[in-house]
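Need residues for this backbone.
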């Protein structure tokens, strides 16, 4: 997030605290999609991820006055959703991958074998991500799905850059081994 976007978040928080509730809708618009991707990556269930993000957004709204650094609203909100995901994983101890695809595999190309292989690879990646320790999975998703820098990750998570680099490296190594074991030569896709 650029300094201008952070300042804009701070201004939106101030407006909400002054009673302009519609300003919260803009904060939701800015942050909801990345939070949904993160939550899905952590819990591997679209419905649960949406519920966790929604719950986090509601909690953030109700606790907005406790946000000590309004310009860092995004990082504060991320920690709320992160904690929701952690609680969900503790409660459910889910390590399963849905057998139902998220969407039908339809291609504008006429290559069903290629589509099938992509679907298998996607399932193998989801399964491999689910096997990672939570801290590694989180770091991997933030780096490679959300495209955050290590400095941005450190700010969000409150961890050191070197520790995050190590987590991402270990996650990559574990994913490669898992994918090779699943028959995807050379850990394709990681």
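Answer:
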């Amino acid at each position: 997030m650029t300094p201008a976007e952070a300042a804009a978040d701070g201004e939106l928080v101030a407006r909400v605290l002054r009673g302009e509730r519609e300003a919260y809708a803009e904060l939701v618009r800015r942050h909801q999609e990345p939070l949904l991707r993160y939550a899905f990556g952590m819990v591997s269930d679209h419905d649960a991820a949406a519920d966790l993000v929604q719950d986090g957004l509601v909690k953030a709204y109700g606790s907005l006055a406790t946000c000590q650094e309004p310009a860092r609203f995004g990082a504060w909100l991320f920690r709320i959703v992160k904690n929701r995901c952690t609680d969900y994983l503790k409660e459910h101890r889910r390590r399963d991958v849905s057998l139902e695809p998220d969407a039908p595999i339809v291609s504008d190309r006429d290559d069903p074998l290629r589509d099938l292989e992509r679907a298998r690879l996607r399932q193998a990646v989801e399964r491999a991500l689910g096997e990672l320790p939570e801290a590694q999975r989180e770091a991997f998703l933030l780096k490679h799905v959300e495209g955050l820098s290590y400095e941005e990750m450190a700010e969000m998570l409150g961890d050191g850059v070197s520790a995050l680099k190590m987590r991402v490296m270990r996650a990559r190594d574990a994913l490669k081994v898992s994918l090779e074991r699943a028959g995807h030569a050379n850990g394709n896709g990681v």
